[in-house]
Amino acid sequence: MNFDPTEEYEDVNEAAVTDWKSETTTRERIKAVIMRTTEPTSASEVADKASASEPVVRDELTDLADSGLVEKIDGGQGALYKRNDQMYIYQQVLKLHDEYSADELVEKLQDMKQTVSDIRTTYGVESPAELAQQLDPDDREGWEDHTTWQTAQKNLYLAKAAISFYDAEKMVV
To answer: What InterPro entries would the database entry show (predicted)?
Structure first.
């Protein structure tokens, strides 16, 4: 993104969209939007968010649904779309598998477990939900720990799946 702090914008969001459009293709923007879409959404809403025409969005969403990356849902008055969560998880696991060796993943897993254990001990709770219930609204450090715990929990599942992927490769290949 090209940003010149001396240049004045009436609407910074409009400037960001202009830069995004100049740096990406329409199909890249559509895919970026739909891969963050977890609730069934109309093609027109995706088109608006991706700054793309609705016919192009419908074509791309159809292609993405055919490839399994997107779910197409009958919304009664037209199709709705959202990312395919199973494919999203699979892509995250493959990314970890490509970026880290099995040993490195085990190290990351140990670190994340230690992080969760430390937060549990610090606050004397067993879950992020329990922690959230005891935190004061202005307890900044506590809320940061809460976010850290939630992120570590999500990443623990993905790391475990990536390690299992390595194990499966040994057995199958």
So the answer is: DUF7342 (IPR055766), WH-like_DNA-bd_sf (IPR036388), WH_DNA-bd_sf (IPR036390)
